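A quick aside before the break. I want you to see a complete sequence-to-structure record at least once, exactly as it would be stored in a machine-readable document. Don't worry about memorizing anything.
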Amino acid sequence: MTSPASPMPDAVPAPQRKKLFIRTWGCQMNVYDSTRMADVLAPLGYGPAETPEEADMVILNTCHIREKASEKVFSDLGRLRLLKTEKEQAGQKMVLAVAGCVAQAEGAEITARAPWVDIVLGPQTYHRLPEMVARASRAAGAQIDTDFPVEQKFDLLPEVNANQGPIAFLTIQEGCDKFCSFCVVPYTRGAEFSRPVAAILAEARRLVAGGAREIALLGQNVNAWHGEAPDGATWSLSRLLYALAEIDGLARIRYTTSHPRDMDDALIEAHGRIPQLMPFLHLPVQSGSDKVLAAMNRGHKAELFYRIADRLREARPDMALSSDFIVGHPGESAADHAATMQLVEKVGFALAYSFKYSPRPGTPAAGQPFQVPEAEKDARLQELQAVLRRQQDEFNRACVGREVDILWTGPGRHPGQIAGRTPWLQPVHAIGPAELAGRIARVRLTAAHPNSLSAVLLEEKELTPA
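That is the input. The structure line, written in tokens, reads:
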């Protein structure tokens, strides 16, 4: 009889589990991409790491939209160099990769300034990550892939990990053909591409089967999506939304980010006809001045935005809007800034993001004359943000006393709390059982805080999706 301490003759050692740490900057598109990179690397034995220190591979998934984005990446790479060296001295190996839009735009500079980086890959090539990891393990020198391949990366990716939680993200569109003067996205993400209908619906059903109650559709210009159906017809986003609403168990649908030029009549109408489509829309306008909008190459005037806002609220009276604003675009005058302030006051926003213009290398605006002085940009931004903060506070306070349905996402910050989201995307916390996570329950909103709302539960039973 074989001793319990003796190995079985045919026993094969289990493969060693590797750890992967991904740091993500920027938009939900990058969050989605990070999730897919983890999916791609899972067959190679990589599981999640909580910190870079415990990781065998670290990926920095970068964003080039914000000011000094690349310098933040290089600062992180400097810290990771020390960690990588420590691991090598201990006889361990750490693969270091830079992905995303900074990698796409500045791949050569990354390898020149940070030669300890093993892999540099753009947003369109992360389906090739396993091959690049294998090459990096065999050879010295950085592996760089920032091409825009002919094949579509979605066709080459494994099925999405369905267990994302109650709120899941689903990319349906990538790239941009708008070429706004301030923006690097067309150069880092490539031309607009729409995923086909069948692939989107199949992924949505997997996400719902995995526990998702809300799906947020993602795209650089998500409302420009026009996907091919199995019968060869081309669907618009509104038609896709109606099809998604028929999926059993999908209680909430959102989409972001949209462009005013692509808000057609059918899409606006859908907001009044699809109960699952949440009454909150992020629609960047950037400026309220027609002169600045023309300089930005936005392709529309302020009047279009006013008209869209009115029509959305006619279709869905409880509609709340969010937007993006850039102050100090080259050539922006005090009168142009005043036009933006007028638009903000007239439309009213539940939430908004605002930034000072900062030049992006290679974009048309970077070389334009009449750059606005930094002090003037600061003053305009402070004035704008004060109004936007006031509007957000007013919207949140106006919600107090209302009875609304909350999608609960998990535990809150304090013992006994559970956290969730309103239909308008506001964070909510209440005293309630952890078992509510993934369910929808009705509350009365009791208090507004700077970044969240308090509530009391009115019922704990799950509501049937409309």
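Two observations worth writing down. The chain has a mean pLDDT of 88. Residues 374-399 form the longest helix (26 residues). We'll return to this after the break.
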